[in-house]
Amino acid sequence: xxxGERPLPRALHLRPSALAAVAVGGLLGTSARYGLGRxxxxxxxxxxxxxxxxxxxxxxxxxxLLEALIRIGPDTSWRQVVRLGVGTGALGSFTTYSALAVDxxxxxxxxxxxxxxxxxxxxxxxxxxxxxxxxALAARLGERRSTS
Amino acid sequence: xxxxxxxxxxxxxxxxxxxxxxxxxxxxxxxxxxPTVLINVIGSLLLGLLTxxxxxHDAPAEMLTVVGVGFCGGFTTFSTTSVDxxxxxxxxxxxxxxxxxxxxxxxxxxxxxAGLGLAAVW
Lengths: 148, 122
Fold this sequence. Notes:
The complex is a heterodimer. By secondary structure, chain A is an all-alpha fold. Chain A is built from five helices and no strands. By secondary structure, chain B is mainly alpha-helical.
């Protein structure tokens, strides 16, 4: 095969190393979420504070991680493995949207309208704020690194 | 033992999310991160169905833990939606940011209600 006929690189999501990074991260992120749910159970009808904390913390960490990686260098080699393993795998599966939606609907169904509204909107707004804080923290650390 | 099932199911959910999201983003000409919206909606519909099966048909709670907390939890993601929305805000695309942040919430709530409703009339 001549140089000009080299096949296109395989799409990222078809590479075994990328899939393995996401799988291992997913294992850890899901276990952490499940463990926290067991340690800090919320009774039926209660405000789902555990899932709220998990989602907001995960949103902060993902904002920080992705911004930090962008500042360190291009999305290749170890940076890509970290992004896929820690970001897509671990933080992606640590946080959850389906539990947010189900818990909100169950609160609505049982007539806890205020809890449902504050939980759903509170999670989305706190998540946006947390992501912004994470990005700003990474940006600040990056500036300190480049000026020192 | 159930913790192993939850972890493996969550890992599988994360891998399926990664493959579906990457494949759709590669094909999509849209600048909006709608593949993640779709993933969250499908995962929420599935969790609504499973929750309904346990609530209305006495399906085993272990199934809900493994497939619901594990697979649906690992498949759907809150952090990516939050980052996607903030990136749109940073790009001054406020309408799109609102559509992703509040649209995902609204559609997943409807998806869960549809899942619960389907399970109830099954």
